[in-house]
Specification:
The structure is a single chain. This protein is α/β, with parallel strands linked by helices. 38% of the residues lie in helices and 23% in strands. The protein has 4 domains: 145 residues, Alpha-D-Glucose-1,6-Bisphosphate, subunit A, domain 3 (Alpha-D-Glucose-1,6-Bisphosphate, Chain A, domain 3); 100 residues, Alpha-D-Glucose-1,6-Bisphosphate, Chain A, domain 3 (3-Layer(aba) Sandwich), CATH 3.40.120.10; 105 residues, Alpha-D-Glucose-1,6-Bisphosphate, subunit A, domain 3 (Alpha-D-Glucose-1,6-Bisphosphate, Chain A, domain 3); 83 residues, TATA-Binding Protein. Strands 1, 2, 3, 4, 5, 6 and 7 form a 7-stranded mixed β-sheet that branches. Strands 18, 19, 20, 21, 22 and 23 form a 6-stranded antiparallel β-sheet that branches. A 5-stranded mixed β-sheet has the order 9-8-10-11-12, with helices on both faces. The two termini are 40 Å apart. Pfam families: PGM_PMM_I, PGM_PMM_II, PGM_PMM_III, PGM_PMM_IV. Belongs to the phosphohexose mutase family.
Length: 449
């Protein structure tokens, strides 16, 4: 039997199959989802993992047992599920464990219009009700129809970013055997794009590398292919294809902060004076560039629930995170790696310069990237860092500790799930960034000893 207490996280459901997450658990969650949300109809999609089909079918049985009608979209990316929820006006559930290893699976849930369901917006109630329903079966009375939404998804994205008129581009895409291998061909069909596919075969065992582009080792094959084929750009998607990482023509990674600034500038050209959301560990260049383009930058805590909530509150047209999640008002405030990739392709294809030059204007600072330290007494480590930097910069504690100097900043915050402190530092030159990073890590290291 599954372990509901363990698999229900702050924003989604995720666990090892079948030890923590099995079909009876999925069936109970399906029934609980309908009871808690009051859904009369809902849409379900799943990724390519071997366990996804039986888990999704069990969930659907549970939902139908509570008289809900189900639209079964079958294979899809997470942003395809968001498209389905938004365009059909239905609550939705996506079966995926994103970039986690093959033995994992999980669920991402939303209300109608792709409004996310998290711990404080219904997920806890669904967990508690499911615990009461595990093992209780009932006859499915709701209907189920299968509906292919891939072509509608591709068409809708292409109405948001017009790529028909761009110059011909050579594009290498690494799908990591994940759902990008399913969605990219549909979106790119008929466009002036010469596509070189890497690992497009859907395989939830991830035989080539983990489908997590945040790990540099998973980008090596893409970087090599871009350089060897003299491509204009490389794109890497994670397992459920809601995140996208960009590689330039030299085989170099492009910071998600630079992508955030680039897309923000494009959205502000479309919506003058609009609000743009960025989390507190994106580059200082992001709010600078937003202001220069006449927009209003709003800073949030790290995490998609905070970004989506602030976007809804402010009516922001776009939001970006350091983790390569990109959110769009025109996409029901949901995140879509594919839509972000299309903006980059449009920016590249509308002129003749190489990608490194196009994104270079959006890369103003030197960043450390996220550095993790295992620390049992996180409070003591934060106290010592606060003491060491007293009087040297402005402090704020929106999310952990952020210290900002004249041309540098760092953020040190505790992980929500592990005994780790996460450090991000940035400065106008690489030497200063390294000095700040090393100083903070030295202090943290002494507490960890």
């Amino acid at each position: 039997m599954g372990d509901l207490a363990k698999i229900f996280k702050a924003y989604d459901v995720r666990g090892v199959v079948p030890d923590e997450f099995d079909e009876p658990t999925a069936e109970a969650v399906g029934a609980a989802f309908v009871e808690v949300t009051g859904a009369e109809s809902l849409v379900v999609a799943h990724d390519m993992r071997e366990s996804s089909v039986p888990l999704a079918e069990a969930f659907i049985r549970g939902a139908r047992s509570r008289r809900a009608d189900v639209v079964h979209a079958g294979l899809g990316s997470t942003d395809l599920l968001y498209y389905a929820s938004g365009s059909l006006g239905l609550p939705g559930v996506m079966f995926t464990a994103s970039h986690n290893p093959a033995r994992y699976n999980g669920m991402k849930m939303c209300r109608s219009g792709a409004v996310p369901i998290g711990g404080d917006t219904g997920l806890t109630e669904i967990r508690d009700r499911a615990a009461e329903l595990v093992g209780i079966t009932a006859t499915p009375t709701g209907s189920m129809i299968e509906k292919d939404l891939l072509s509608g998804y591709a068409h809708y994205l292409r109405t948001l970013v017009d790529l028909q008129g761009i110059r011909p581009l050579k594009v290498v895409v690494d799908a990591g055997n994940g759902m990008g291998g399913h969605t990219v061909p549909a979106v790119f069909e008929g466009l002036p794009i010469e596509l070189t596919p890497l690992y497009f075969e859907l395989d939830g065992d991830f035989p080539n590398h983990e489908a997590n582009p945040l790990e540099p080792g998973n980008l090596v094959d893409l970087q090599r292919a871009v350089v060897e084929s003299r491509a204009d750009i490389g794109l890497a998607f994670d397992g459920d294809a809601d995140r996208c990482w960009v590689i330039d023509e030299r085989g170099q990674s492009v910071s998600p902060s630079a992508i955030t600034a680039l897309v923000a500038a494009r959205e502000l050209a479309k919506y003058p004076g609009a609000t743009i959301i960025h989390n507190l560990i994106t580059s200082l260049g992001v709010p600078e560039i937003v202001r220069e383009h006449g927009g209003v930058p709003v800073r949030t805590r790290v995490g998609h629930s905070f970004i989506k909530a602030e976007m809804a509150r402010t009516g922001a047209v776009f939001g970006g995170e350091h983790s390569a999640h990109y959110y769009f008002r025109d996409f029901w405030f949901a995140d879509s790696g594919m839509l972000a990739a299309m903006h980059v392709l449009a920016a590249l294809g509308e002129q003749q310069r190489p990608l490194s030059e196009v994104v270079g204007v959006y890369s103003r600072y030197h960043a450390s990237g996220e550095v993790n330290s295992a620390v049992a007494d996180q409070g003591e480590a934060l106290r010592r860092v606060r003491e060491a930097f007293a009087g040297r910069g402005d402090f704020d504690e929106l999310d952990g500790l952020t210290v900002t100097g004249s041309d540098w900043w760092f953020n040190l915050r505790a992980s929500n799930t592990e005994p780790l402190l996460r450090l991000n530092a940035e400065a106008a030159d690489d030497g200063k960034m390294t000095a700040i990073k090393d100083e903070v890590l030295a202090i943290v290291g002494k507490v960890a000893e």
